[in-house]
Amino acid sequence: MFNEIRKSLKKWYIENGRDLPWRKSLNPYNIWLSEIILQQTQINQGLPYYYAFIEKYPDIFALANADEQDVLNLWQGLGYYSRARNMLQTAKIIVNEYQGQFPDEYSSLIKLKGVGKYTASAIISIAFNKAFAVVDGNVYRLLSRLFGIDVPVDTASGQKVFTKLADELLDKNEPGNFNQAMMDFGALQCKKVPNCSICPLQNYCTAFMSDTVSDLPVKSKKTVVKNRYMHYLLLEKNQQLILTKRTSDDIWKNLYDFPLIETLNSSEIGIENIKHLIEPHNLAEEMKCIYKVNHKLTHRNITANFYVVNLKKPLKKINFEREYVFVNKNRIEDFPFPKLIENFFKFYLH
Ligand code: SF4
Prior knowledge:
Blueprint: H1 2-16, H2 28-37, H3 43-56, H4 60-64, H5 68-75, H6 82-98, H7 106-109, H8 117-128, H9 137-146, H10 156-169, H11 175-189, H12 206-209, E1 226-237, E2 240-245, E3 256-257, E4 260-263, E5 288-296, E6 300-309, E7 324-328, H13 339-348
Parallel strand pairs: 1-6
Antiparallel strand pairs: 1-2, 1-4, 2-3, 2-7, 5-6
Bound molecules: iron/sulfur cluster (SF4).
């Protein structure tokens, strides 16, 4: 049956596979770049970023020489910024330790920053034609339905079962093409809500035949989401605004936002809450919350309030534990921001 499934997938891929720019070459740099961009991102959203990176950094040497702030600026809006930082570190390692050539061994690829099993398998199979199967959410979904497997996909035992099955099903003669066919089939055909009536794998699909498509795949646990309440202070005088750099091991590392107070609930804060940051005699009057927003990340539900703090004279310093800079408002675009702040600027600066 495996052979029939492989044949059907191959035919489907030739007729329906996505025409993606990195598929036009077997260059591991292009494949790696696309895989990193698409790790937590939909293709439609990731494509413009891929083009922008290839244009600015056409090869690994150009990227390895890039400034981190420029890379983060270009990455702005994609989220999960650790991907961009890891990408830059990996580019430097490839240039310094591998003379600019991607290693063609899985064991070396997997050691690179930001390269997990999926990305290593994708690079090694597509660029080097080596038989390593890719296994991600799309592949779990397809395999669990095709073979009627109800082992939870988010457990170690589930991952073992699905990885073994993916390895067995892999077409060892064309592992790169086969993996891309699996990726596309999971993304376009065997979707969350699949269109089984036109599926070429219908006759082999256990879930279809047993009417259990909507029960698969099985997950064991829900993602735990933490609430965070952020209160941002807009300290502005004579077109100068204070930005701070997020340097700790928290969300948005090395991106910029504003001096911030975090609380345990969503209630607005008042001037008494910020007197330890700014000399009280410089505070003109009550501060005002001008913008509120809820912003969802995978593991965080953020409620953010933005306050205008009226000052009597320009600030020289604040007692804030983070690194901060005074920036002219028309130079804001030189800095990388998380999406939450980027969205706020659309409101605040226009
Ligand atoms: Fe997926 Fe439906 Fe095709 Fe089965 S028949 S592989 S569930 S699309």
